[in-house]
Amino acid sequence: MPSKETGQLRIVDSRTENAYLIPIHDNFIRAKDLMAITTPDPKGSDIEQKLTVLDNGFENVACMESEITLIDGNRGQIQYRGHPIQELFQNNDYEDVLYLLMWGKLPTQAEKLDVRRKFAAAMVPTKTVVDTIAAFPRNSDTYPMCLAGLCAFMSGDKVIANNRHTHKPSFHNNFEQADAAIIRTIAYYATTLALIHCHKRKLTFTNPDPNGSLIGNLLLMMGKTNKETGVGPDPEIQACLEKLWICYADHEMTNSTAGLLHAGSTLADPGSCAISALVCGFGPLHGGAIDLAYEALGKIKHPSFVPAYIEMVKSKKARLFGYGHRIYRTRDPRLSLIEELIEKNREKCDANPLLRVAFAIDKLANEDEYFVSRKLKANADLLGCFLYSALGFETDMITAIITLSRIPGGLAHWRETLDKPIKIWRPRQIYTGDRTDDVDTSGRQSLSSNEGALKEKHGIQVRELNSGKSNKIPLKVKAILWAKSCFS
Description:
Oligomer: single chain
Strand order of the largest sheet: 5-6-7
Structural class: mainly alpha
Radius of gyration: 28 Å
């Protein structure tokens, strides 16, 4: 729904005493409107200086208008396309929510099955992909393996590979091709994770079920199968992840989503955009904080050491990763949903020694005035990781799996841009370094004034195109003919 002007911001520039009326649209102003505020060049030239907005860290800057996800951090609300997350959690599964985010409505059973089959068809890895993952030592870090596997898949995808070699946009306003590439990209990454998991643990990779869900096939390919029958994905793990991933499906303009869209503004393919999101997502202040949190839990070792660790955090001698969120001023609505899943899996959670330490930290943090006064609570990403551990996932795979649950949401934002005007993202900066004033530019020479030097040094003959002194086709005409033959 297009934003409407709801008021005006009256600004008086004390430098010039000029007054401006800036339109307000649904409680935001457009930064470009502030460019109307100008001041004369202090150097005395006739070039006016336009006002620029500086916001390090983008704390109060919106870069997109979107219909996908609403987050109200003051009221603790999340909605996916107008559906409260609590309703979707209770009544739907992750497949439904993925479809809702991507295509704007909840799917019919036939539509779900159609997407399932498309995912499964793209999940069969080529030898190149298998060999790429196998080339890594089994104890390698998961993150670079994720990037390498996804790149190996993309190298064999003709549409994605050709995107950089075509002069017409491959995906912009071409939703049929974009949707197919989105599905393949998600499938490629799911298969990459499964191959990594199997390679590290010397397990046999299992090809996907053509009618299986995205989560079901991920578990099947990873070898997380039904413990009683050995056939199909583990139903308990699948049922938990189908709900947990709803909490992670999208979170509006996160750092990784912004990174994905920044790449997308160059008309990059969805695979490359997903890689940009992964690079951001594995950073220590983003999804990578989960790895650091688990490393800290491993060092604490036992709940009895938790009070001492909390005191170290308060004295800034240690850092508590996975706590706090700058968007929320009240309780994150996802926490109660994840706590519901934890209660359903309480026996498994209590049996995990690492989680006993984690819950001891959380209990103390919820009671200590230092954390309470600062509203520092375990964020949803960390709390959800406890479930992964309880369900038997090793810590080296958890962050990677979480990123898989988030990539479809990021690509939904990318898809949303495809019918918007093409505009590459190119932020401004405020230069603060040394500056030389009054640079002499009089030494510039035109081509005509430099003609003699060209002739003398290089033997280049410079002709006027209209002089009539040559029977050859003029260079300008040649250029036009060449351009037509190459690009028409």
